[in-house]
Amino acid sequence: MVAKWSRVVVGVDGSDGSLKALQWAAEIAKERHTELTVVMALRPSLPPLPGVSPSYSTHDDVDPQLQAEQRLLESIHKVLGEEPRVLVHPEVRNESAAKALIEASKSADLLVVGRRGVGGFAGMLLGSVSQHVAAHAHCSVVVVR
């Protein structure tokens, strides 16, 4: 007998790796008949790579929280469409990506992250966030490549 799950959590930062993780996590949540929480950290763990937009704005006239919420919803709609086949809870957290995901893992059955996000270094198999999360999460972790 397979135990009933209540929640799958996935970290999204807008990078290709995180969007692949979102797709994978949504499929698992659908198969397990559970909710999907999609987490975006307002403060990136590392500076973004050249050419990649950060998940917040440094302009005084733009609300970083609202901008992050919009980017998160855009990522969800891009990957899952306007009417996802799974119940999705978007969350923007005002903390580092690793801290936000580890905290979210406390009430999750599975935590999914991409191999590398916006702060990755060329040649690394896992980024610093996925390494930290894999070591400290409160549930099983899947790193999607």
Folded structure, characterized:
With 145 residues, the chain is α/β, with parallel strands linked by helices. The protein has a single domain (7-144), classed as Rossmann fold, CATH 3.40.50.620. It is built from 4 helices and 5 strands, in the order βαβαβαβαβ. It has helices at residues 16-31, 64-80, 97-104, 128-136; strands spanning 7-11, 35-41, 88-93, 110-114, 140-144. Strands 3-2-1-4-5 form a 5-stranded parallel β-sheet, sandwiched between helices. Helix 2 links the parallel strand 2 and strand 3. Helix 1 (16-31) crosses helix 2 and helix 3 (97-104) runs parallel beside helix 4 (128-136). The radius of gyration is 14 Å and the shape is globular. It starts with 6 loop residues before the first strand and ends with a strand.
Helix content: 25-40%
Characterize the overall form.
globular
The CATH class name reads Alpha Beta
> Which parts are unreliable, with pLDDT below 50 for 5 consecutive residues or more?
120-125
Give the biggest beta sheet: 5 strands, parallel
> Over all CA atoms, what is the radius of gyration?
14 Å
Average per-residue pLDDT, rounded, comes to 85
Largest sheet: spatial strand order: 3-2-1-4-5
Q: How far from one another are the termini?
A: 29 Å
CATH superfamily: HUPs
How many independent structural domains? 1
The CATH architecture category equals 3-Layer(aba) Sandwich
Topology:
Elements: E1 7-11, H1 16-31, E2 35-41, H2 64-80, E3 88-93, H3 97-104, E4 110-114, H4 128-136, E5 140-144
Parallel strand pairs: 1-2, 1-4, 2-3, 4-5
